[in-house]
Amino acid sequence: MRTGIIIQARMTSTRLPGKVMLELCGRPVLKQLIERLKYSKNQIPIIIATTDNETDNIIADFAEQESLGLFRGSEKDVLSRYYLAAKKYELDTVVRITSDCPLYDPFVLDEMLELFKKEKDLDYLSNTLNNRTYPRGLDTEIFTFAALEKSYCEARDADCREHVTPYIYRNMDKFKLKEYLSPENHSDLRWTLDTREDYKLIKIIYQNLYDKNADHFFIYQEILEGYQTHPEWKEINATIEQKKVNYGGEMQ
Description:
Elements: E1 3-8, E2 23-24, E3 27-28, H1 29-37, E4 46-51, H2 57-65, E5 69-73, H3 78-88, E6 93-98, H4 106-118, E7 124-126, E8 141-144, H5 145-154, H6 158-162, H7 166-169, E9 177-179, H8 196-209, H9 220-229, H10 233-236
Parallel strand pairs: 1-4, 1-6, 4-5, 7-9
Antiparallel strand pairs: 2-3, 6-8, 7-8
Helix pairs in contact: 3-5
């Protein structure tokens, strides 16, 4: 069974254009995310799925420089972009992570992959369904290629095409789904990058916790401890509302 991480990325995000290439402690946001994913014990191939637009040449160049997988496709039909990327790289299991999550913790991915592999009849596993407990920015979806292909062939609604997985979780009679919850509820925390306020917060967290010379990365729990020391962090982007598509965020 071949598992791969597909990260959707584009430069024309509406609220914060070019966000994936903004600087965080001397590296682009996308680079920081990739470096954190490399700490996964599973050592999963990473594929960047960007658009055919010239504005996204910078992302394609980045993927090639980092020796990552690369697929370029439709800007609006992100479902087709995912499906064709997974097909190109012959994936059996797809991990979906968005490019605007530079605080992502690969330990969450490892735990979820272990569960997904254990429950062999699962089509879809997510920590973002009905009872979100993780901070926004640790969002993870894992699904079979078969479920992705079924969605690609059957989904007709525009938001199902733009956001990849709505067809799966809106058709529970066709797929076996499971939700993954953390022991504590920190769903009130926003660690995704979508606005200037988000960028301000994430930069502060990196400035406090990041050490480029360390042989480890700062983990989820260390960020939570940072909030205990700096309760003002929570106010920086507390008023930002996530764009909604039944569930989920802005099209990447």
